[in-house]
Amino acid sequence: MSSNILRRAYKLSSSILYRYQPISTFFVSRSDPQFSTSSGKPQNQKNEYGVSSISNKRLNFSFGSSLNNTRLLFSTQAAVEPSTSDGLTVDGIVANQWTILDENESDWKSHASAIAQSIGLIKKRLQWKKLKVRLEMLSYQLEKPDLWDDPVHAGRISREHGSLMGKMKEVNGLEQGLLEHIDMIKLAREEDDTDLEAESVKALLRMRQSLKEKELEALLAGEHDSCSCYIEVQAGAGGTESMDWAGMVMQMYKMWAQRRGYGVTVVDEMRGEIAGIKRATIKVDGEYAYGYAKAEVGAHRLVRISPFDSAKRRHTSFAAVAVTPILGDGSHHVQINESDLRIERYRSGGAGGQHANVTDSAVRITHIPTGITASCQNERSQHQNKASAMAVLQSRLDQREMVRQAQMNAQYTQSLTDNSWGNQIRSYVLHPYRMVKDLRTNFEVSDPDSVLEGEIDDFILSFLTESMDKENDEV
Amino acid sequence: MNLAILARSSPLFTTSRILHRSIASKPFSCCSISNSPISINPKTPLFLRPPTFSATLSDLQKWQNWAKSIASSVKSSFTDSDNGPNSNDLHRELNWLIEDALENPQSLLTHNEFEIDYVLRLRADLDELYLLWKQRIEKRRPFQYVVGCEHWRDLVVSVEEGVLIPRPETELMVDLVDDVIKENEDLKEGLWVDLGTGSGAIAIGIVRILGDFGRVIATDLSHVAVQVASFNVNRYNLQDKISVKQGSWFEPLSGFEGRVAGLVSNPPYIPSGHVSGLQAEVGRHEPILALDGGEDGMADLLHLCNGAALMLKSGGFFAFETNGEDQCRFLVDHMETIHNGSFHNLEIIPDFAGIQRFVTGIRS
Question: Where are the domains of chain A?
Fold first, then answer.
């Protein structure tokens, strides 16, 4: 083995190592004689070596990766597939196909089977294999000595690494927990301890229940899903009828956001002359706002007898919806150059200054190189309208850059980039029959009023579930 | 030259001051601008008043619907007659009025029309809200006087009749100062002056970007303005860094000749002939003292130029707001010829509407 490979292995592994053990242990393990010898041995022993041997195992996996075998990298649990004392693994439980009964049936096999399935689904939704590859890449980057030359980039890498690592540990913990409970039940049976057995079955039940929530959370595992977001609605062609429709769609999102307990602020709104809006942007504040709302991107179609048509004809109108995440400070993808901006009073006229008393201090900011604009008129001072518009602009530029990067890096494309602003995603029919149907999932509801009052969670979840589960099946 | 003499050097200036005094004091039967030191208490802005009133949700909604409907009836009539607000602007103002008047404005969103008995806590009683909105629409009383405050940059400054409502354009003045002091530590820690401070907005905006040793003297001729500016300074807890003085332009600054690091002002610059045609909110309600700049609107600006040459130390910075391109050009020309060599880096800077709004420069 060349010393070069050794050094690479050392580098690769140290980032994980320091998450798990003090640096000093690491140095001890480095001087450990096993360091040079253990690499060739199969590593299926369970923890007999204590802490230092864990590090050796990790080093060993790195050597594996240099042999193009990345399977076992980054997790001891993954490397040594955890099992019960009699060798039952999580995959084994799934393979057993134990019948899943109702939660009320206190049957441990049923609980265990349901839990194992949930864990499988969560892994699928987290894109487990991709996640591991991504984690490997991030760890490698974290090791580069020049990483912190660009602190913004470094911060982003290290945050994403931490977040993925957290997900991986959580799932590994779930697997571990399931097996421990099973061991407990078996032990209790051997010892004839009915109290302990009942307690352990209950623990399994609690786990089974809590995993339903986690399955849902796993749908929102995208890098920016937990962010707040902007939702922008724009009326399609068709005058007042389509502006009215755009206004209805925006109202639907406002009510949806309020239902979910999100904060809603109108940032920018251009009203139609007679009804509705030409376009509007709202800011939706709260955890996972982006993760949910991104499912709404696309064109929404309305069919009804238009109240604005004196001939009472049936009209079809469209409203386009765009959603952009609000990234935290330091995680922006684009650095905006002040000199690239043109800032204008949105509505001006007259001499201004002391001549005018205005409460409307709207500004529009144009990012000259891209032509992307953002405006805000709902704040009470120009300064704050400007700050708000800047935040919208930042979000739009970030989004644009993320799409660009995702296209370049097809390996880690998020499903959201498939949805363009123009794709028709949902149809709302008020006449001649009444129905709302999602064209992506075929999910439908026959009560359009409730949907327009903001009950769109089922549409969102069915889309997220279907698109994510389908996409991951293809992987 | 003595500062007091400087202050009165322009004959136009003197007459217009006298004129202003009599006009400015009109709306204030309670507080004619006298030299007596009794302090009048500035009115507390609505959003700072205690929520001692209450109304049921249904009564508040009744008021809100009434207010909306009279705002809607305005359409573009004000805009057509004098470039005043349209219904859209008034609806937005109504939302802000509610925001300021309710203890918990969110409760309007979270409670629906079926909870008509739900009781909301208010900072003004419902009768007053009816009166205030009526004044806004029928009397064209500026919204900022109605709620007693103006949101300006990241500040909320208290305003009332007798004090000019700070304009959005003027916010840029603080950015101009920010650009200058970023490169110049000496200015950042120096003494700044805001002449004709009105509500004190510019002085407060500037002092918050100055360094630890930076100080501002804010002057105003109007007694009401001095009171309101002091109130705002205290509210932002800046009384140790800003001193508000009453007097005409440079009068309160004797002894600081050649020691001032920066000088800013938004003086009256509207030509006298334009005053009668002003937007109703401005012409009928705001203090003419703060608006009328004499025949060509330049009387005070020219006076300030002369004073700047005297007060600023070498390397000191000035920024004046003007009525537009003509005044800007005139000022620059004046400084280049009359004060030949006194200033350099003279610049004309536009506001966000593209109107040449500010003249800045450095004392040589």
Answer: 3-219, 228-475
Contact between residue B306 and residue B5 where contact means Cβ atoms under 8 Å apart = no
Return the CATH fold of A228-475. Answer: Alpha-Beta Plaits (3.30.70)
One-character DSSP codes across A120-180: HHHHHHTTHHHHHHHHHHHHHHHH-TTGGGSHHHHHHHHHHHHHHHHHHHHHHHHHHHHHH
Which of A343, A354, A379 is facing B167, going by the closest CB pair? A354
- Contact A382/B at CB under 8 A: yes
Does A366 contact chain B (CB < 8 Å)? Answer: no
Domain that includes residue B232, residue range: 3-15+162-363
B86 and B196 within one domain: no
Find chain B residues with C-beta within 8 A of A363's C-beta.
352
* B131 and B169 co-located in one domain: no
| Among candidates A344, A350, A381 on the partner chain, residue whose Cβ is nearest the Cβ of B171 | A381
Amino acid identity, position A114: A
Blockwise average pLDDT, block size 10, chain B, 364 residues: 42 40 36 43 92 93 95 94 92 94 81 76 96 97 97 97 96 96 93 98 97 96 96 97 96 95 97 95 96 96 95 97 96 93 96 95 96
**A3-219 with A228-475: one CATH topology?**
no
Residue of B254, B360, B315 lying closest to B4 (CA atoms)? B254
H or E segment to which residue B350 belongs = strand B343-350
Inter-chain residue contact B269 with A352, CB threshold 8 Å: no
Q: Could you give the count of Cα atoms lying within 13 Å of A381 in the half-sphere of its Cβ?
A: 19
Q: Which two tokens stand for residue B239?
A: 């009384």
Q: Are A338 and A366 in contact (CB under 8 A)?
A: no
Contact A352 B167 (CB under 8 A): yes
Residue B93 to residue A453: CA distance in whole angstroms: 27
Instruction: Give the E-state strand segments of B13-77 in sequence order.
Output: 53-56
Do the chains contact at B85 and A351, CB–CB below 8 Å? no
Quick check: A358 contacting B, CB < 8 Å?
Answer: yes
Assess whether B192 and B301 both reside in one domain: yes
Contact assignment for B109 to A258 by CB distance below 8 Å: yes
Q: Which amino acid appears at position B224 of this protein?
A: V
pLDDT in tens, B50-91: 999 999 999 999 999 999 999 999 999 999 999 999 998 999
B10 and B79 belong to one structural domain: no
Q: Which two tokens stand for residue A144?
A: 């580069």
Instruction: Spell out which residues of chain B touch residue A360, defining contact as CB-CB under 8 Å.
Output: 85, 89, 92
Of B153, B164, B324, the CB nearest to A383: B153
Question: ipTM, 2 decimals?
Answer: 0.86
Beta strands in B162-276 (DSSP E): 191-195, 215-220, 242-246, 260-265
A50: number of Cβ within 10 Å: 8
- The whole-angstrom separation of Cα A411 and Cα A248 is 38
Residue B166 sits at the chain A interface (C-beta within 8 Å)? no
- The alpha-carbon gap from A406 to the nearest alpha carbon of chain B, in Å, equals 36
> Do the chains contact at A349 and B83, CB–CB below 8 Å?
yes
